[in-house]
Amino acid sequence: MTAAALIGDQLILEEDYDESYSPSEQELQEYAREIGIDPISEPELLWLAREGIAAPMPPEWKPCQDVTGDIYYFNFSSGQSTWDHPCDEHYRRLVEQERERGQLAAAAGGARSR
C-alpha cells in the first residue's frame, strides 16, 4: 500500500493490487481460518480462501492508517469503517453457503442410498 493523502491525523492509503499475487501456503491457511474454514477438515472449501485472499478492494473502500500505525478500512460512500478487509464478510458468507450446499448434497446422497 502506498500513501495517497493525509486527512487530519489519518493517512489514506492506496491499495497496490497485484493480479499475479500468489499467497504462500501459510498465508492461505491463516486466511482460511480467518473466514471460518478449517483447512484440515474442510480442504474442499480452500478455493474460497484462495479467491478471497487475492480479491481486490471494492472501489468505494480505501485502506487507512491511524496514528498508532494500525490499518483499517473506510468506505468513503457510506462512512462505514472496519478493521477487517471489506471482502472478508462476503467470503465468510460464501463459506457458510458452500457448507450448507455440501450438507444438503450429502443428505440428498444419503437419502438416495437408502
TrEMBL record:
Cell compartment(s), UniProt: Cytoplasm, Cytoskeleton, Microtubule organizing center, Centrosome, Centriole; Nucleus
Coiled coil residues, start to end: none
GO BP: any one term: cell projection organization
Gene3D superfamilies cross-referenced by the UniProt entry: Photosystem I PsaD, reaction center subunit II (3.30.1470.10)
Domain WW stretches: 55-88
Matches recorded under PROSITE patterns: WW_DOMAIN_1 (PS01159), WW_DOMAIN_2 (PS50020)
Matches recorded under InterPro entries: ABRA-related (IPR053233), WW_dom (IPR001202), WW_dom_sf (IPR036020)
GO cellular component, one term: centriole
Predominant cellular place of this UniProt entry's protein: cytoplasm
Keyword terms of this UniProt record: Cell cycle, Cell division, Cilium biogenesis/degradation, Coiled coil, Cytoplasm, Cytoskeleton, DNA damage, DNA repair, Mitosis, Nucleus, Phosphoprotein
One Pfam family of this chain: WW
Function text: Plays a role in microtubule organization and/or maintenance for the formation of primary cilia (PC), a microtubule-based structure that protrudes from the surface of epithelial cells. Plays a critical role in G2/M checkpoint and nuclear divisions. A key player in the DNA damage-activated ATR/ATM signaling cascade since it is required for the proper phosphorylation of H2AX, RPA, CHEK2 and CHEK1. Plays a critical role in chromosome segregation, acting as a mediator required for the maintenance of genomic stability through modulation of MDC1, RPA and CHEK1.
Oligomeric and partner information: Interacts (via N-terminus) with ATRIP. Interacts with ATM, ATR and MDC1. Interacts with XPA (via N-terminus) upon UV irradiation. Interacts with CEP83, CCDC92, TTBK2, DVL3, NPHP3 and weakly with NPHP4. Interacts with DZIP1.
Protein name: Centrosomal protein of 164 kDa
Organism: Gasterosteus aculeatus
Lineage of the species this protein comes from: Eukaryota, Metazoa, Chordata, Craniata, Vertebrata
